[in-house]
Amino acid sequence: xxxxxxxxxxxxxxxxxxxxxxxxxxxxxxxxxxxxxxxxxxxxxxxxxxxxxxxxxxxxxxxxxxxxxxxxxxxxxxxxxxxxxxxxxxxxxxxxxxxxxxxxxxxxxxxxxxxxxxxxxxxxxxxxxxxxxxxxxxxxxxxxxxxxxxxxxxxxxxxxxxxxxxxxxxxxxxxxxxxxxxxxxxxxxxxxxxxxxxxxxxxxxxxxxxxxxxxxxxxxxxxxxxxxxxxxxxxxxxxxxxxxxx
Length: 246
What we know:
Layout: H1 10-20, H2 24-31, H3 35-47, E1 54-58, H4 64-69, E2 81-86, H5 89-98, E3 105-109, E4 122-128, H6 137-147, E5 148-159, H7 165-186, H8 190-202, H9 206-216, E6 219-226, E7 231-237
Parallel strand pairs: 1-2, 1-4, 2-3, 4-5
Antiparallel strand pairs: 5-7, 6-7
Helix pairs in contact: 2-7, 7-8
């Protein structure tokens, strides 16, 4: 069993997620008390995939979020082609098996800090619960900006800081005491979820991530809290015209 630390060395992170890939979705559902489904629905609505669009789902894991984005067209939404990219080969292999036969999802192993795509390739880019696992998340944001088409959109779903003190204190207690205990029964690699708790506590708040998006170049930046701010859904748009150099 492997466990990354907060230095987030790529080899450690990749190996850790390889270890948990087989039961990853089930464990997430247990640890989130089913809220992961609601967060995925909110993210899909925010991305608003449209017929014929090309969407990058970075840190896609086993492709559960990608499948939601690539669903058939309904009321003018859906029908997008989704590139499901992840740094963990184990996750990608599980995803290929689970989504076999879905022609709208393309899986590949990719480094979030050095994406294997050209400039301005995607109508939308999204990353759920993966940005904080990248060594330098601001480099990853710059890469996501680079591969987004002018006028394209970004959606980030990530753990965050509950603004209400009692919720924040209770959540901290959950991360420190309850999550490790539950992970011992639900996960094939409980140590990985110790890292998860550490990475959440170390992650900046909503305002900081919003500032990073703006500094990267995205406009119309905003966020809304989900589940009392335990998770935040961040959004932005790449300008349609080049911006002057700062």
